[in-house]
Amino acid sequence: MAKHNEIGQLGEELAVKFLKEKGYQIEELNWRHRKAEIDIICRQEDTLIFVEVKTRSTDFFGQPEEFVTSNKEDLMSDAAAVYCEKIGHEWAIRFDIIAIVLKKNEPSIQHFEDAFFPSI
Description:
Strand order of the largest sheet: 1-2-3-4-5
Number of helices: 2
Number of domains: 1
Number of strands: 5
Radius of gyration: 14 Å
Strand content: 35-45%
Mean pLDDT: 91
Distance between the termini: 38 Å
CATH topology: Trna Endonuclease, Chain: A, domain 1
Shape: globular
Structural class: alpha+beta
Helix content: 25-40%
CATH class: Alpha Beta
């Protein structure tokens, strides 16, 4: 496995642990629809949350959350709509970003709730 894939996988594992510790219920991991992948789908009470995890080994080139593009947001939004229809979810949804920087094996984790809104 390529180094960047290992870093991404570690980041997703850390994000799942982080969310569980905050009381979130994990529904799906790496859920795919066409070109889109949603790293984590979870619940907090009646809210369905779609999470993009960005992990970097350093913040030298910028913060991880800065690398979530508008194209990625659009793909996630489209996939979220399909997922909601598939499971019959008609209540609140939210799009979050979890940004992780792995600094000397001591990760820094930031959780951005309501990080973006679907474009219309």
